[in-house]
């Protein structure tokens, strides 16, 4: 029993990264906590459909296709000649099972009650739980609530989704066969990640997006480099194009027909529809709690992750940007600490954090891009290192990788790091540490790195940048 007559001090709706961290933080403060999860497994989209499965899927793709070794052995190199969807999902299922086991064990150790049910608000403190089978419905009361229900793929009603020929990213793990050709509608992060994975398998990929630039939030040089590499990988880019209609045809080898507003007609065996995600809040009946949501079913919050209702918090993807598992963990912890009167270290937000984009090749970035600094009128200089110039890059066969640092010519402080290539999402943390401590690029120029490693790119890029300062 929670304090002041409530059944629980904290009820968390959703068991993804942000929900887990909120629940465990409250439990460590000796609060009574329950997590409500409507799926049959814990972990939310992150573990069951999104981050973990897609990155494991990617790893299986890179291994079985021999993609990483093609720079050495040639483009025809394969670890397995005929790759099936079962081959790819075998590894995914193993990893997902292990992750679920770890999360359940963590909840048990911290005495967090896990309830498998669909949650619906009846009033700001009263939640109705609906379970399948004999338990039916019951009601619980919560002193504080954290909504961590995540998002779901946006689905337009006029699109003929069948989960196999026309599907969203949430459906990929349910595919029965690997298509030989696919049209990816929407070149956001998720769309382009899957587009490059399928291309690495030898699938003929066409990408359609109404924006003229691929991932325009990236540093322009990284975006251009990715576009070039992707186009060399059997991917046709239809940028600046908008979809008018998608239809399923009978009795043809390429049953998916995508008509563009420009008049072009595309055909493929399958289509991945990836036009963004919306908050998975519809079942919650937020209106009964007085909680406001926006037109994409996301919940606006303040700097403490409170909704417009003081005791109801929202964290993770359901609040929108940046929608990363890494930041979601911190949001969940921060919300629980604030809910029970503890101060947070970063009150105005999470602060400096990296992005990892798991395209093939992968990309990671932290800090400011050239365009952002130019728009802000801030002087900067750059330094670059190409993987092909680094011994480790030659050894692993990555000849397209690039590490770019941006720094202040006056203070020499690091302003941003942008990487494309093998290990980018690991390498970025070296730059992150220096930026967090307001370090100067002279550190990289003077530091001794293991040889041969990709981390040497930092030294090469720093020396390149300092040379640009020389008059």
Model description:
- Strands 1, 2, 3, 4, 5, 6 and 17 form a 7-stranded mixed sheet that branches. The chain has a 5-stranded parallel sheet with strand order 8-15-9-10-11.
- The longest helix is centred in the N-terminal third of the chain and has 25 residues.
- The chain is built from 13 helices and 22 strands.
- The mean pLDDT is 92.
What is the topological layout?
Blueprint: E1 8-13, H1 17-28, E2 33-37, H2 44-48, H3 51-65, H4 70-73, H5 85-109, E3 113-116, E4 118-121, E5 126-130, E6 137-147, E7 151-153, E8 166-167, E9 181-185, H6 189-200, E10 204-209, H7 220-231, E11 235-239, E12 243-248, E13 256-260, E14 265-268, E15 270-273, E16 277-279, E17 312-314, H8 325-339, E18 355-357, E19 363-367, H9 370-375, E20 381-386, H10 391-396, E21 402-407, E22 414-420, H11 424-436, H12 442-446, H13 456-469
Parallel strand pairs: 1-2, 1-6, 2-3, 6-17, 8-15, 9-10, 9-15, 10-11
Antiparallel strand pairs: 4-5, 5-6, 7-16, 12-13, 13-14, 18-19, 19-22, 20-21, 21-22
Helix pairs in contact: 1-8, 3-5, 3-6
């Amino acid at each position: 029993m929670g304090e002041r007559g409530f059944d629980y001090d904290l009820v968390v709706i959703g068991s993804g990264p942000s929900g887990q961290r909120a629940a465990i933080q409250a439990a460590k403060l000796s609060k009574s906590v329950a997590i409500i999860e409507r799926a049959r497994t814990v972990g939310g989209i992150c573990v069951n459909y999104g981050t973990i499965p897609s990155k494991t899927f990617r790893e299986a793709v890179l291994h079985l296709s021999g993609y990483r070794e093609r720079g050495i052995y040639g483009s025809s190199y394969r670890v397995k000649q005929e790759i099936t969807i079962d081959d790819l999902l075998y590894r995914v299922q193993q990893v997902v099972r292990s992750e679920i086991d770890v999360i359940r064990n963590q909840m048990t150790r911290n005495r967090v009650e896990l309830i498998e049910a669909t949650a619906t608000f009846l009033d700001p403190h009263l939640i109705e739980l609906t379970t399948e089978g004999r338990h039916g419905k019951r009601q619980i009361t919560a002193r504080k609530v954290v909504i961590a229900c995540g998002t779901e793929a946006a689905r337009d009603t006029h699109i003929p989704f069948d989960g196999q020929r026309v599907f969203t990213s949430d459906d990929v793990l349910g595919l029965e066969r690997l298509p030989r050709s696919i049209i990816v509608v929407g070149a956001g992060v998720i769309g382009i990640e899957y587009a490059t994975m399928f291309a690495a398998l030898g699938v003929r990929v066409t990408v359609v997006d109404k924006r003229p630039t691929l991932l325009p939030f990236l540093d322009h040089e990284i975006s251009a480099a990715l576009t070039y590499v992707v186009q060399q990988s059997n991917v046709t880019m239809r940028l600046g194009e908008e979809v008018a209609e998608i239809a399923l045809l009978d009795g043809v080898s390429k049953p998916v027909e995508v008509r563009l507003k420009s008049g072009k007609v595309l055909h493929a065996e399958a289509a991945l529809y990836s036009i963004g995600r919306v908050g998975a809040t519809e079942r919650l009946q937020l209106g009964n709690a007085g909680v406001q949501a926006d037109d994409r079913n996301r919940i606006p919050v303040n700097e403490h992750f409170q909704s417009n209702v003081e005791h109801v918090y929202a964290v993770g993807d359901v609040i929108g940007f940046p929608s990363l598992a890494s930041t979601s963990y911190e949001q969940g912890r921060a919300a629980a600490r604030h809910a029970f009167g503890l101060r947070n270290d970063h009150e105005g937000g999470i602060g400096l954090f990296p992005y990892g984009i798991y395209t093939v090749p992968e990309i990671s970035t932290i800090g400011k891009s050239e365009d952002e600094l130019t728009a802000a009128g801030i002087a900067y200089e750059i330094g670059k290192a190409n993987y092909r110039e680094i011994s480790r890059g030659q050894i692993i066969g990555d000849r397209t990788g690039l590490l770019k640092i941006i720094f202040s010519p006056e203070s020499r402080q690091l302003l941003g790091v942008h990487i494309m290539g093998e290990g980018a999402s690991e390498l970025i943390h070296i730059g992150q540490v220096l930026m967090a401590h307001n370090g100067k690029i002279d550190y990289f120029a003077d530091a001794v790195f293991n040889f041969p490693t990709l981390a040497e790119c930092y030294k090469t890029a720093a020396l390149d940048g300092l040379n640009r300062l020389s008059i």
